[in-house]
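Input structure tokens:
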């Protein structure tokens, strides 16, 4: 099933070029916290799935083009991210990389991106005003967690996966001696975590470790890799993160970028496509509000 969040945090099921509104499956109490609806649905999926099917039998289709899609989970509890998780990517950033050469996510562990940096398909990646820094795209498969778990062994990890989405891990690079801000901040500007276009449930992606992951800037291909080339695979990432803290339903794991990471600038159009998972395009813009300090 392809789940979406649209308009003002409504929950939809996408079939072909149509979307069906199934928001009524979520308790009305969550109308006070609509950004939490998808977290609730994921946490209650085993009981809610059949009710979604029942709503679908009587729902009226809405043309997909007539709605504004939001990120398919607009407010996950956490956004975990793997650094240096494809062999070819390691080393390509030279002295702009904070990950030491030769070290992968296995040694480095994970970092966090602010959930507030998430934006949906058709949204914008907003760069600081008049910045002289380098901003890069990273094309990544996102794993969405379905069940709470702690100390999950890798052999059982896939049971905790709810589904998948496309994620761009946008990044302001360090500039040695000029700007060496914390990684979490450099990756958490408004719109620096495009997620979407849909949340595809795990049953529709039987082989997540064999998917073509591609990214284009202004129609020119920049990144093209298969998820089989990850160093730390999805089960090991779940084992690693859950050995540190509990995973929650709705959590997002950005699984790391392959090589081909490169810069974008205001006016650019960035497209990500992952087989069986989705395809979306975002625009890069410059903010019109100056920062109190230059970037
Ligand atoms: Mn990344």
């Amino acid at each position: 099933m392809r789940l979406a969040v649209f308009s003002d945090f409504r929950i939809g099921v996408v079939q072909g070029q149509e979307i069906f509104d199934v928001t009524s499956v979520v308790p009305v109490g969550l109308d006070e916290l609509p950004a939490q609806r998808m977290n609730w649905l994921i946490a209650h999926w085993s009981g809610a799935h059949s009710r979604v099917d029942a709503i679908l039998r009587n729902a009226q289709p809405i043309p997909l083009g007539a709605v504004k899609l939001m990120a398919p989970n607009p407010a996950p509890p956490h956004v975990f991210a793997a650094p240096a998780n494809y062999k070819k990517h390691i080393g390509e950033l030279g002295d702009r990389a904070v990950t030491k050469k030769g070290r992968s996510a296995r040694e480095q562990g994970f970092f966090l991106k602010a959930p507030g940096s998430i934006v949906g398909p058709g949204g914008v990646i907003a760069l600081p005003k008049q910045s002289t820094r380098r901003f890069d795209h990273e094309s990544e498969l996102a794993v969405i967690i379905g069940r709470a778990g702690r100390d999950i062994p890798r052999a059982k990890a896939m049971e905790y996966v709810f589904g998948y989405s496309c994620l761009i891990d946008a990044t302001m690079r360090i500039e040695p001696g000029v700007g060496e801000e914390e990684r979490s901040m450099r990756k958490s500007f408004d719109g620096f975590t495009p997620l979407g276009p849909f949340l595809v449930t795990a049953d529709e992606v039987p082989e997540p470790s064999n998917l073509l992951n591609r990214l284009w800037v202004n129609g020119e291909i920049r990144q093209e890799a298969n998820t089989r080339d990850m160093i730390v695979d999805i089960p090991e990432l779940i084992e690693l993160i859950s050995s540190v803290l509990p995973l929650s339903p709705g959590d997002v794991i950005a699984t790391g970028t392959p090589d081909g990471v490169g810069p974008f600038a205001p006016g650019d159009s960035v497209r990500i496509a992952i087989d069986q998972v989705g395809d979306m395009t975002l625009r890069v813009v410059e903010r019109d509000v100056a920062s109190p300090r230059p970037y």
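Helices lie at 37-43, 45-58, 105-108, 183-186, 234-242. The chain has a mean pLDDT of 95.
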